[in-house]
């Protein structure tokens, strides 16, 4: 009988690859959060498709109150930033973009809820897609955040539950290569901040995705806007 795992699955590239790593050894229950983000409908659609491919259970959790906190471009009328290619690796520019799409406490909330499910379902791990490239500008993707949250779970739970972040030391190029090597259904993933029926190709998330496939030579089956 397989062990149980909870995965925080946005339907994006990173969480899809991270979840796929554990599909052979774990019975996976994926959680997708609708927190009022512009891309919620497409993220949920993608996550469902990924779960079908991985044979995972899927639950959508509604968090409408989270959209009301802060003024993130993901959840408000603020425009989604469209950085230049040259700005992706410029720390100052990337940090500015990151702050504009920051949702207060998002990964803290998601991971805490995942822990509740893990305790209730006797799951031994929580899978997350946190990675090295995102950690440069998003502190809740960092190795330090991972280690700190695992310490919280050690202290604050009767059960032995560990957060597994298999991509924590990888950049996007490495994630795409790794995803390709394990047969992760990356073509089903959705990364766009704008929530369009296709990838806009110009938001930061789309640009990092597109660049990684191009850099690695892995076939990119993503449909991008003709204007990108």
UniProtKB/TrEMBL annotation:
Pfam families in alphabetical order: QueC
Keywords: ATP-binding, Ligase, Metal-binding, Nucleotide-binding, Zinc
Protein's gene: queC
Annotated residues for binding of Zn(2+): 192, 200, 203, 206
Catalytic activity: 7-carboxy-7-carbaguanine + NH4(+) + 2 ATP = 7-cyano-7-carbaguanine + 2 AMP + 2 diphosphate + 2 H(+)
Entry note: cofactor: Binds 1 zinc ion per subunit.
Keyword Mitochondrion: no
Gene Ontology molecular-function annotations: ATP binding; ligase activity, forming carbon-nitrogen bonds; zinc ion binding
SUPFAM superfamilies, per database record: Adenine nucleotide alpha hydrolases-like
Family: Belongs to the QueC family.
Main EC class the enzyme belongs to: ligase
Pathway: Purine metabolism; 7-cyano-7-deazaguanine biosynthesis
Name of protein: 7-cyano-7-deazaguanine synthase
Cofactor: Zn(2+)
Residues that bind ATP: 9-19
């Amino acid at each position: 009988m397989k062990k149980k795992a909870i995965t925080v699955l946005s339907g994006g590239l990173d969480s899809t690859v991270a979840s796929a790593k554990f599909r052979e050894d774990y019975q996976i229950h994926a959680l997708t959060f609708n927190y009022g983000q512009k891309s919620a409908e497409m993220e949920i659609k993608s996550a469902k498709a990924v779960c079908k491919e991985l044979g995972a259970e899927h639950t959508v959790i509604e968090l409408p109150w989270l959209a009301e906190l802060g003024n993130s471009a993901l959840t408000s009328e603020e425009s989604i930033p469209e950085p230049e290619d040259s700005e992706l690796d410029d720390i100052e520019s990337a940090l500015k973009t990151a702050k504009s799409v920051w949702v207060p406490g998002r990964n803290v909330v998601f991971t805490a809820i995942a822990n509740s499910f893990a305790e209730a379902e006797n799951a031994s791990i929580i899978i997350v897609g946190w990675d090295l490239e995102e950690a440069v500008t998003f502190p809740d993707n960092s190795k330090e955040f991972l280690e700190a949250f695992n310490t919280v779970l050690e202290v604050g739970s009767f059960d032995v539950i560990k957060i597994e972040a298999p991509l924590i030391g990888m950049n996007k190029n490495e994630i795409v290569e790794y995803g390709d090597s394990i047969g992760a259904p990356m073509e089903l993933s959705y990364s766009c901040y704008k929530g369009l029926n296709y990838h806009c190709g110009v938001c930061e998330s789309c640009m990092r995705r597109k660049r990684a496939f191009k850099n690695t030579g892995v076939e990119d089956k993503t449909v991008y806007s003709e204007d990108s």
